[in-house]
Amino acid sequence: MRKTDSLERYLQFKLLWFFIPIGLFFGLWTWQIELKWQWILLSELGLFLTCLLFNLNIKTRVLKAFTRATLHLDAIGQEDYNQFAKSSFSSGKVKEFHVQLKKLSELLQQQKSRYDQHAFLVYQLIGQLESPILVFDHKQQLTFGNQAFEHLFKRPWLMLKHASAELLGLELAANNWQFSESSLRNKWQIRKSEFIDDGQTHQLLVFIDIESALRENQLNAWQQIIRVLTHEIRNSLTPVSSMAETLADKADNERDKMVLSVITERCSHLQNFVNRYSSLSQQYQLNCQWLLVEHVMKSVANMYDNLKITTSGTAKQIWADNEFFEQVLINLIKNAQEASATKVSLNFDQQEQFTVIDVVDNGHGFNNLENLFVPLYTTKPQGQGIGLSFCRSIIEQHQGVLELHNNEEQGVTVMIILPIPASS
Q1: Structure-model confidence comparison of residues 245 and 5, the more confident one
Q2: What does the pLDDT read at residue 181?
Q3: What residues does 343 pair with on adjacent strands?
Q4: Percent of the chain at pLDDT above 70?
Q5: pLDDT at residue 286, rounded to an integer
């Protein structure tokens, strides 16, 4: 016998075969009692309608149990695990089936809660990482960014939520993400990975500052060279200086004494020169505290009487080491003065968890920005090529950033970004 393709047809078929014998038996019985054919026909019609209603009632009752189960499964499909369908029977297989569905919902609810907790912890961890990280949904729209996102895009990620990749200046080339702007493309490397959330594929992008890594490697190389040179030069200068002083005491004529005195003086000068460069390889012990901008600027401005220095901005205090931060400002203002600047403006602004300081002068600027932070490189006749490297080293030891660029019309802008401690 051919199998039926649905439960409804199966019930209809089986019930039909169940009621056909009853109808035949009822017809024979009415014929035996010799009812008129009109009454027999009417009785058969009444029996048919009764059987039909009984058939429909059974089908409705049976299918109702599955309809409720279907609603429950639809709720599970929508990740609504708190909606349960009540069984139409108080016991038996249908009741057992609904109990199993309820247990499945409770299990999926527990698994979803654990997943949500894990996802929350992962996003919290990502939020604390120093590398900029963002997440695109399946439409390539921004759905998440960490705190370091603001360093790169200059705005909190929530202000750019649902922004397209194109709006963020990103493009997909050969299945790899990159910046549309070449200067940023050479500075940042983007690593991509995919994950599925809520049934949709998301992309997680990690931005790696390759320029910073290269700069750190260069600085480490310079520090190693400086340490070696310092060691060798000191070992050579000490005996030369000592012998020159001894010979000067024993010299009989003034000319020999003068020559030996010059040798001693140059040895001392070279020793001081080496000592200054050895500071580039030092890790300083910073004593960070809240500094009032007004007090810091009063202390620094008093050193430059013939230079107009102005202060503005919303930040009234900064988190930094007083001695080292003042030395950074002194070096920057001194550079501006040596670049023929007549005025320097400092703007202190607080943005989210960072203090941004812009030092702007109206000097003649720099001809070569690429080598500014290279130790020993200088364009000044009496320069030693250490000032800007020292400044950036100090700011980075504050966990901050120092960037420098020429202004469009005149002068230089140095931007310093200092983090604000989370406890504040």
Answers
A1: 245
A2: 83
A3: 308
A4: 67
A5: 83
Burial of 28 (0-12, 13-18, 19+ CB in 10 A): exposed
- How far is residue 384 from each of residues 122, 276, 280, 284, measured CA to CA in Å? 47, 9, 12, 21
* pLDDT, position 381: 45
- In the predicted structure, residue 318 carries a pLDDT above the cut 60: yes
The CATH class of the 121-210 domain is: alpha beta
Q: How far apart are the first and last CA of the chain?
A: 81
Strand partners, 310: 345
286 Cβ neighbours under 8 A, 6+ residues apart: 321, 324, 397, 398
What CATH architecture does domain 288-419 belong to? 2-Layer Sandwich (3.30)
The pLDDT score that the predictor gives to residue 384 is: 42
Q: How many CB atoms lie within 10 A of CB 324?
A: 20
Task: For residues 357 and 320, give the distance between their C-alpha atoms in angstroms, rounded to a whole number.
Answer: 12
Contact between 411 and 302 (Cβ < 8 Å): no
Q: Averaged over 344-368, what is the pLDDT? A: 87
| pLDDT, greater one: 218 or 181 | 181
- Tell how far CA 221 is from the center of its chain: 30
Query: Quick check: 320 pLDDT over 90?
Result: yes
Q: 57 pLDDT exceeds 90?
A: no
Can you tell me the distance from the alpha carbon of 176 to that of 185, in angstroms, rounded to the nearest whole number? 12
3-state secondary structure string, the chain? CCCCCCHHHHHHHHHHHHHHHHHHHHHHHHHHCCCCHHHHHHHHHHHHHHHHHHHHHHHHHHHHHHHHHHHHHHHHHCCCCCCCCCCCCCCHHHHHHHHHHHHHHHHHHHHHHHHHHHHHHHHHHHHHCCCCEEEECCCCEEEEECCCHHHHHCCCHHHHCCCECCCCCEEEECCEEEECCHHHHHHEEEEEEEEEECCEEEEEEEEEEHHHHHHHHHHHHHHHHHHHHHHHHHHHHHHHHHHHHHHHHHCCCHHHHHHHHHHHHHHHHHHHHHHHHHHHHCCCCCCEEEEEHHHHHHHHHCCCCCCEEEEECCCCEEEEEHHHHHHHHHHHHHHHHHCCCCEEEEEEEEECCEEEEEEEECCCCCCCCCCCCCCCCCCCCCCCCCHHHHHHHHHHHCCCEEEEEECCCCCEEEEEEEECCCCC
Q: Which amino acid is at 113?
A: S
Residue 91 predicted with pLDDT over 60 = yes
Q: What integer pLDDT is reported at residue 25 of this predicted model?
A: 56
